[in-house]
Amino acid sequence: MASSEEDGTVEEKENNNKKRTKSALATAWLTFYNIAMTAGWLVLAMAMMRFYIQKGTHKGLYRSIARTLKFFQTFALVEVGHCAIGIVRTSVIVTGVQVCSRIFMVWFVTNGIRQIQNEESVILFLVVWTVTEITRYSYYTFNLLNHLPYFIKWARYNLFIVLYPLGVVGELLTIYAALPFVRRTGMYSMRLPNKYNVSFDYYYCLIIVMLSYIPLFPQLYFHMLRQRRRVLHGEVIVEKDD
Ligand SMILES: CCCCCCCCCCCCC/C=C/C(=O)SCCNC(=O)CCNC(=O)[C@H](O)C(C)(C)COP(=O)(O)OP(=O)(O)OC[C@H]1O[C@@H](n2cnc3c(N)ncnc32)[C@H](O)[C@@H]1OP(=O)(O)O
Q1: If you measure from the C-alpha of residue 192 to the centroid of ligand 1, how many angstroms do you get, rounded to a whole number?
Q2: pTM score, two decimals?
């Protein structure tokens, strides 16, 4: 009896040790990841400012930062993994929608359609994303290091109130600007008859994506408002599991 109790204690200790090692590893990885992402978005911010100061126009700005933007925005897919394996307490669905919509904007809209890269709306969402991500990743970094300046916490949970809708406006206007071009060229579309017997119209796909902002965006926005109340005002919020 005594020996089995001891075994239980040893097992518990081993489990606790494993958990501690796992959480130390997770914290180390998250710290590295957040520092890298803060640096990436800072590089983007500086590149955009330098371009605008040197050229005095936004025309050509997207092309000049496209590579860095594609890299760092695509890398954010890792965040869906963080939620899936449980190293951050965030919903896979909320993070998945956020990250996938950004990746879609970058790869399948702005990068894929050169003709819209100089639209003002592209600059609008780029500036908004950049400010958001510098604030967000530096918040996570300082939080993990237990040295969080209040102004970063404040910025993380207040700026989104204005930036989120502005970002959505920039994204929707950009997709809207792409529609005539997509319709004219039939890009990314498959018309019948073809050997796969499948038809796909990218033009209508873009319209569906635009419409999907109506149910999805409020959910992300209200999620952030709940996070704000929890972090800034200490409210206990029970969220449904995914
Ligand atoms: C295939 C095509 C699909 C198309 C679909 C189209 C529809 C799209 C509709 C929606 C459109 C959205 C468009 C987006 C536009 C913009 O982004 S505009 C810019 C403004 N945006 C924002 O301000 C939002 C930014 N986004 C986010 O903040 C996140 O993506 C989020 C998922 C919404 C954040 O949620 P969440 O993670 O739950 O909140 P937090 O409070 O930040 O974190 C919760 C806890 O998790 C910890 N944590 C999370 N990530 C990390 C990390 N990387 N490192 C360390 N810790 C992390 C965090 O600290 C919190 O911990 P606790 O406090 O202990 O709970």
Answers
A1: 40
A2: 0.91
